[in-house]
């Protein structure tokens, strides 16, 4: 759901066993604590980045790729194993296809690959052409991508989840980014999936992890 959610909508959808008034009071409390936001006075609420990260770190159950899909992904990139540029190009295409969002690969030498631009139009958030323009402009700015992947201080986790507003780039506020790093053929690189804040993290995180490991494995072959 891309729109703010109110207490009555939650009650109807999830049958939580408490009244809408109780749900509303809890939502007010969570808003005061910084976990929810109310975009407009009469609107429902949306999760803040701190709430999204709490869910991802503490509550979320990952959905792993099937063995068949792992094998298929490896077959798609295998013929490119001797050329890192070609490998990253093919891996980016395969990653975009599986995550149904924009996929990006980059090296610390300044090379960048992206795929899946058309996927953004599947998300209601990108029905606003200004949001699309901001995202596409960002993807074309090599310096910002280098900053995102290689100059920003990371969390220390193998997989990082970032939100546009955390980066200090207001034009990316509606955007969520999942990143990871790899080393292949002696070169440091990064992979990322970019889409709306409400990305399907349950599937995207394990897929991104698999592709990171796949690139390192295939590059050694």
From TrEMBL:
Repressor as a keyword of this entry, yes or no, is yes
Give one Pfam family.
HrcA
Q: What's in the keyword line of the UniProt record?
A: Repressor, Stress response, Transcription, Transcription regulation
| GO terms under biological process | negative regulation of DNA-templated transcription
Provide the GO MF annotations for this entry: DNA binding
Q: Which residues form the signal peptide?
A: none
Indicate whether Transcription regulation appears among the record's keywords.
yes
Q: Which domain of life is it from?
A: Bacteria
Q: InterPro entries this protein is in?
A: GAF-like_dom_sf (IPR029016), HrcA (IPR002571), HrcA_C (IPR021153), WH-like_DNA-bd_sf (IPR036388), WH_DNA-bd_sf (IPR036390)
* Heat-inducible transcription repressor HrcA C-terminal domain span: 62-205
Put simply, this protein is called: Transcriptional regulator of heat shock protein
Instruction: Give the organism the record lists.
Output: Candidatus Woesebacteria bacterium GW2011_GWF2_46_8
């Amino acid at each position: 759901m891309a729109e703010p959610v109110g207490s009555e909508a939650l009650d109807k959808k999830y049958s939580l066993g408490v009244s809408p008034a109780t749900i509303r009071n809890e939502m007010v409390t969570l808003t005061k604590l910084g976990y929810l936001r109310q975009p407009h006075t009469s609107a429902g609420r949306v999760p803040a980045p701190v709430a999204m990260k709490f869910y991802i770190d503490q509550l979320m159950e990952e959905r792993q790729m099937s063995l068949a899909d792992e094998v298929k992904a490896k077959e798609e990139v295998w013929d490119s194993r001797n050329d890192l540029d070609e490998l990253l190009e093919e891996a980016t295409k395969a990653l975009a296809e599986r995550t149904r969002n924009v996929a990006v690969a980059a090296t610390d030498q300044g090379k960048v690959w992206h795929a899946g631009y058309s996927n953004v139009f599947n998300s209601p958030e990108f029905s606003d052409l200004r949001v699309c323009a901001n995202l596409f402009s960002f993807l074309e700015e090599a310096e910002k991508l280098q900053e995102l992947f290689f100059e920003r201080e990371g969390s220390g986790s193998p997989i990082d989840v970032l939100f546009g507003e955390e980066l200090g780039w207001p034009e990316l506020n509606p955007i969520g980014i999942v990143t990871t790093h790899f080393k292949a053929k002696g070169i440091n690189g990064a992979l990322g999936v970019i889409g709306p804040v409400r990305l399907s993290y349950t599937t995207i995180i394990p897929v991104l992890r698999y592709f990171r490991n796949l690139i390192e494995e295939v590059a050694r072959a």
